[in-house]
Amino acid sequence: MAARKFLSASVAVLALTGAFVVLPTVEVSAKPAPVKPKLVRVAVPSVPVAQQRSAAVATPSARAAGKRVVAALTSTGTSFDVAGVTFTGATPAGLTVEARTRTSAGWSRWFELAVDDGDGPDPGSADAKRAAKTTEPLTAAGATGLEVRVAASGTTAPAGLTATLVDAGSSAADAQVGVTPPGSAVAAVTQPTIITRAEWGADESIRTCTPETITGVKGAVVHHTVNANDYTQAQAASLVRGIYAYHVQSNGWCDIGYQFLVDRFGKVYEGRYGSLTRFVQGAQTAGFNTETVGVSVIGDYQTLAFSQATTDAVSKVIAWLADRADFDPAGTATFTSAGNGKYPAGTVVTKSRVSGHRDYGQTECPGDAGYAQISSIRSSAASIWTAGRQSFTVMSPTPVVETFTRPAGTAFTLSGHGSGHGRGMSQYGANGAARAGLTAAQITSFYYPGTTLASQGDPQVRIYLSALGSGGTTVPPQAGLTFSDGKATTVLSSSTSWRIVPDGGGLTLQWRTGTSWTSSGYWKAWKTTPLVLSRPSTGVLRVELPSGLQRDYAGSVTTHVWGTAARSVNTTNAESHTRAVVPNEMPPSWPAAALQAQAIAARSYAAYARAHPLSVSYDTCDSTSCQVYRGIADYDAAGTLRTARLDSRSTAATSATAGSVVRYNGEAALTEFGSSNGGMTVASSLPYQVAKADPYDGVDVAGSTHSWTSSLDLTRIEAAYPTTGTLSSLEVLSRSGGGDWGGRIVSVRVTGSAGSVTVGGDAFRSAMGLRSTWWTVTSAPAVSSPTLPRDLTADSLGDALTPSGSGAAALAYSGNKSFSLKTLTTTGFSGTSLLTGVGPFDSDNIADVVARRSDGTLWLWSGSATGRLDRAPVKIGTGWGGINLLVPVGDLSGDGHTDLLARTSTGTLVLYLGNGAGGFTGSRQITTGWQMFSHITAGDFDGDGRTDVAGVRSSDGRLYFYAGLGGGSLQSSQVIGTTDWRGFSEFKSVGDLTGDGRHDVLVRRASDGALFIEPVTGRFVIGTPLPAGTHAWTTRLGQ
To answer: DSSP string spanning 749-776?
Structure first.
């Protein structure tokens, strides 16, 4: 290769519009990170004329023979991976630069470093504007010595001769880069795995300018680099980094010159920035860079042939590039030179689509041995290309997981329903039912179906008083106070306070003396026998709370040893307990029937607890974990009433239902209840806890949590699950079914930069402080999920949409050249005149449906992971009566969110900009005159990663292609083929139908309803149609 040309063994691809597919990347155990190169520049001193000798004495280069050594350098002690020579001013006649390197194996042979001002960037390019005069680089991983000899026909050395030594640095990830060899079929031709710039440690901060984007390529050119061929796999990434640094910081180019590189082990590396997503102009085949893309083989192949692994990799890269650019690697094409040392500017040459660098310039690249293999590479690439274009791969359905990707802001916005577990009776629902005229018995029958009401009398219930803490039981002075150990009862003095506290593994009774507590030896460290305090004369005991407040409880309080602490348990009768629970659980101002239903539920809950006690010491508790129970009243330390806990209305409801409990098969029922179920009860293993719609929960929503919104900070999620790293998404793995969004979340996966963790829906709710497990994300993702495949059945395969009675159905793809009709919904679509599968239009990754009704309103049906449209539609627009076609286009505007294209009755195309959350941010006119098309569809038909638009002209059936340019603009039209498509009643893209990763077209023949898959390759090249069954409905399919 010659100066500023690149390393010697690369492959370049020639120009035509490119197709972009996302490439697979290599996963490495050590996380790749940018590695900053270090450059050392050493002056190459001139040799005095008297000491100059013939270069032929010790040089292998024929071009140096007979010349004089005019400058020389020996440098040792500096470690480097890549080296080269730069100079300024005029180039002396006959200039030849040679170098050799020293490694642990000793000095290498001498290499000639080509100096050719014409090799490298094209004149006038961004690279050329900054280019310096340099030699091509010499690579030698881990070298510690460099010798340079500069020969010329005369006696004068070039000015400013400098050797540049590049230490590419090392990374813990280098040894693992590219350890995964298989390719991935993501285009019409199987592509090799490509190691990205991030993976090989590119320091993006050193890039100095942005290379030009070219429209495509015509062919491929193979290069090689100048270096020893004994580098290890672990050293390959550092060589790429060194070449990159040399090209930018020594040659002065924008970036590394090659678009791709291949090492001797067959690993492929992304070269010039942007090469994975588009065709960018390189600096590798001077004069032909606007028509070529470069891939470079790392090594010197003058006498040594490429390895089989390298040959295979180069062939696959070329085949893949040829498919992107739509050319046959076995063919030839004409190329126009922009000017180099071999072909003056304007020279038109005919070359093979796959060539060696020497075919285009005055260079030996890719070496004699490498060049001898070009023919076999060309043949192999052509075979791969041909097989790929004729291939069909059966596609397997893959369930879609409901996913919410990281938003652009710092938090998710959530919408939810209900509060708590949702099982049993909704308290707001009981209120609504009572307002609707239901009795208490009817309310309990609705929420606990299959149960009956029975009378239990007034048994005692034991309630653990968590409000008293774990330090025992303290009572203020009060008349009639008694103390019992179960064997004997003692009347205690009413002139002082008393308390029972844990002490030495037992309990001690103490009384207050002044400011201290005293106990006798008899009452100290009582055995573990529970001790009881009560006031039989009144039936009400006043206790002190840890806060200093005093509280009255009906019945007695028993203190139990609990390890080294104590627990206090109130024993009272069921009716006293119920009277105190009801006003704490339900507002007394609510209708009597609701309060009575609450009384029955509370009494029954305690009855179930007696049959299934929480402990041998108590049945139930006083907190929201059971039922809220705060006794009769609270007083301050002076005995002044602060809060009356009972209410006459609640007491009346309790009395009206006295003794009434819910039973199932004669046994106490677990009558769970909660504030609001959000409109759907939740099932459990209990036969009377079933999932069903609750029409009463939303009757009176004032103050309820029937519907709620919340903000969930990303930092809170990351703090709760630190092993996942920086959050990337929340995936809802399963829901309970029924109601909005598919019901309550059963399990969710938190995924981040370092991994993922799966947690139960209730555990996530608790960790995040959410009201319930019934929620969804309503904030827009930073980037909406792809529109294609147009998957309406949540199986990752493309489908077509069709009206079906009053509902809608999917013409669902099987993955193997056949379709079947699947119902999406049976209602909601009466009166719709336009409908389309718009793609993921709201916050998740699941495809949605948009339809225009006869009144001109536009409605959104959000899709679900069930593959049905089981969510209520939402109106998202008005005034759409003048629209006669809806076309799903994905993110045509380039703002990251799914858009919708519409055609007016006058033929104007209007782009409606989606906001990523199920709505629009605005609209803008794209173009006019589109009334001439009978069919319009969209997809990435040229494979460049941008949405294109195609239309069938009504007058002659010709197919027009409009390539997407990004930002919502389209290229001028291009007529595709000569087929008359008027015989087909449908022409639409639903995504990949052939398993090659490219967006294909589905058509239906009007005469008999026969369906055909039209495979798309290259730049909207339509292949041989594949029969795919029939769909003989006369109804027009939706987009």
So the answer is: EEEETTEEEEEEHHHHHHHHT-SBS-EE
β-pair partners for 748: 732, 759
CA 65, CA 56: separation in Å to the nearest integer? 4
Per-residue pLDDT at 891: 94
Q: Is 513's pLDDT higher than 90? A: yes
CB hemisphere CA count around 776 (13 angstroms): 23
**Residue at token pair 């001077």:** 286
Task: At 328, list the tokens.
Answer: 């046959």
Q: What percent of the chain has pLDDT over 90?
A: 72
β-pairing, 909-914 with 460-464?
unpaired
pLDDT score of 11 more than 70: no
Angle at the Cα of 862 from the Cα atoms of 858 and 863, rounded to 5 degrees: 135
Q: How far is 566 from 469, CA to CA, in rounded Å? A: 8
Contact 13, 293 (CB under 8 A): yes
In angstroms, the CA 79 to CA 941 distance is 49
CA separation for the pair 848, 1039 (Å, rounded): 12
pLDDT tens per residue, range 112-155: 888 864 468 888 888 888 888 898 898 888 899 999 999 998 88
The per-residue pLDDT for 5 is 27
- Count how many residues are written for the chain: 1039
Cα–Cα distance measured from residue 384 to residue 494, given in angstroms and rounded to the nearest whole number: 100
How far apart (Å, rounded) are the C-alpha atoms in residues 275 and 191? 14
Tokens in use for 14? 């020639």
Using alpha carbons, list the distances in angstroms from residue 378 to 6, 191, 440. 21, 16, 85
The pTM is what? 0.67
Is the pLDDT at 677 greater than 80? The verdict is: yes
Cα–Cα distance, 989 to 935 (Å, whole number): 11
Listed in sequence order, the residues at least 6 apart from 665 whose beta carbon sits closer than 8 Å to its beta carbon are: none
Least Cα distance to 958 among 942, 934, 978 occurs for 978
Res 6 pLDDT > 50 = no
User: What is the C-alpha to C-alpha distance for residues 717 and 730, in angstroms, rounded to an integer?
Assistant: 10
- Collapsing DSSP to helix, strand or coil, 463 comes out as strand
CB of 262 within 8 A of CB of 313?
yes
39, with CB counted inside 10 A (0-12, 13-18, 19+), is: middle
Computed on alpha carbons and rounded to an integer, the radius of gyration of the chain in Å comes to 40
Q: Which residues make Cβ contacts (< 8 Å) with residue 48, sequence separation at least 6?
A: none
CA–chain centroid gap for 243, Å, is 34
CA angle at 247 for the pair 243 and 252, rounded to the nearest 5°: 160
Among 845, 868, 842, 824, which Cα is nearest to 732's?
A: 845
- pLDDT band of residue 571 (cuts 50, 70, 90) is very high
Q: At what angle do helices 374-390 and 308-325 cross, to 10 degrees?
A: 50
In angstroms, the CA 1019 to CA 561 distance is 81
Concatenating the DSSP letter of every residue in 343-378 gives S-TT-EEEEESEEEGGGTSSS-TT-HHHHTTHHHHH
Write the pLDDT tens digit of every residue in 419-432.
989 999 999 999 99
Q: Which residues face 99 on adjacent strands?
A: 111, 148
**Residue 492 DSSP one-character state:** P
Give the DSSP H/E element, type plus range, for residue 883: strand 883-890
Strands of 188-240 (E only): list them: 194-195, 216-223, 226-227
pLDDT at 119: 63
Per-residue confidence at 227, pLDDT binned at 50, 70, 90? Answer: confident
Q: Cβ(601)–Cβ(591) under 8 Å?
A: no
131: left (phi over 0), alpha (psi -120 to 50) or beta: beta
- Enumerate the H helices of 165-250 as residue ranges: 197-200, 233-249
Is residue 722 reached through a cis peptide bond, with omega within 30 degrees of 0 on the bond before it? no
Structure tokens at 993: 């139908």
d(C-alpha 562, C-alpha 99), whole Å: 85
